[in-house]
Amino acid sequence: MEHLKEKTLESERVFDGNFIRLRKDRVVLPNGATSTREVVEHPGAAAIVPLTPRKEVVLIRQWRHPIKEVSIEIPAGKLSEDEDPLECAKRELSEETGFSARRWDPLIQFYASPGFCDEEMHLFIARDLYVSDGRPDEDEFVEPLVVPLEAALEMIETGEIMDAKSIIGLLRAARFLEMEKV
Amino acid sequence: MEHLKEKTLESERVFDGNFIRLRKDRVVLPNGATSTREVVEHPGAAAIVPLTPRKEVVLIRQWRHPIKEVSIEIPAGKLSEDEDPLECAKRELSEETGFSARRWDPLIQFYASPGFCDEEMHLFIARDLYVSDGRPDEDEFVEPLVVPLEAALEMIETGEIMDAKSIIGLLRAARFLEMEKV
Which residue numbers delimit the Nudix hydrolase domain (chains A, B) (predicted)? Predict the structure, then answer.
């Protein structure tokens, strides 16, 4: 795939915020012409499908400022510097839902928007939940919502769940459980 | 859900690029404290699962600069101003694959990364393909890859397909075809 590759000539930092870092790269295209690529830099994230013994999934409701809506999602959070994705997943599950889990399995890794952002998402399924003492960060307001996995899958159909990582997580979790039965 | 809502106090444009626009909002949190939200503004996008009569899917390979990899994805593109998502999908299918389609159905809509970006993605399934005269934009280098839908689903399992919209599109398309049979 070498013939599709773009080579970076130079790189300029254009924004360095609390959350978002942005750079502008000058690249050489496969045909030798040059072009500009704007890249949102993201530390990566971990997300969790937490399942109770009765095959209920613990979702959270939260306000998402960019879309100006309350969004129903699986628990998730950004990786701290050099953080192991599984450690991040354990921390976020506890902080956002008050649950911890004894049993963890990787579900899938993917890129959220590879056209303009380097965010890589690590998805896990968490089982054998128990109540821990986690609580959200001070500026984070989240509400748990516990529903059967089947109902959560139905919420994708009805458009009540519209968040990409949650859609992928729930569909993968359903398949993961099916495969285990085989 | 009013009690989870954040109210915007002020808004500042911090970057206005060719592709990415970024603003910084000052918001009031549910507890009355104030905080800052950085938002990547995106015009929205459309993506297509194009299926041949033999249930092959037309994928594309392209270099994704942010992740520095060749990515295998379904065809997709950004909406032009006020563009209807279906019109965008038709245009992008033709530009990126050289195919047009006589039969279109909506698959799902979702938010790619609602934590920091307002991008809404509109997904379609396109059938009854025929060869059109589309070709990619000058600075876009894409290569088509035609594989059976079952093989594409397997490429999600193996990690060969790691792009969120493509994962959602392929999983939804498989389900859509199954439902039609019922």
Answer: 41-169
Distance CA A74, CA B126 (A): 30
Q: Are residues A9 and A61 in the same domain?
A: no
Q: How many domains does chain B have?
A: 2
Q: Which helix (H) or strand (E) holds A169?
A: helix A164-181
* Threshold 0.90, pTM exceeds: yes
Instruction: Give contacts of B 146-175 with A, CB under 8 A.
Output: 156, 159, 162-165, 167-168, 171
Same domain, yes or no: B81 and B104? yes
Q: Which of B17, B33, B69 sits opposite A38 (nearest CB)?
A: B17
pLDDT tens digits, B123-157 = 999 999 999 877 767 667 899 999 999 999 999 99
Extract the runs of DSSP E, i.e. beta strands, from A29-98: 34-41, 45-50, 56-64, 69-73, 76-78
Q: Can A41 be counted among the known catalytic residues?
A: no
Asked if B30 is an interface residue toward chain A (Cβ–Cβ < 8 A), one would say: yes
Which residue in this structure is represented by tokens 């990786």?
A: A79
pLDDT tens digits for A144-157? 999 999 999 999 99
ipTM: 0.95
User: Residue A161 is part of a domain; what is its CATH number?
Assistant: 3.90.79.10
Q: Do B38 and A27 touch (CB under 8 A)?
A: no
pLDDT of residue B179: 87
Are B33 and B49 contained in the same domain? no
Q: Structural domain of residue B149, as residue ranges?
A: 45-181
When pLDDT is averaged across residues B59-64 and rounded to a whole number, the result is 97
Rounded CA gap, B171 and B24, in Å? 35
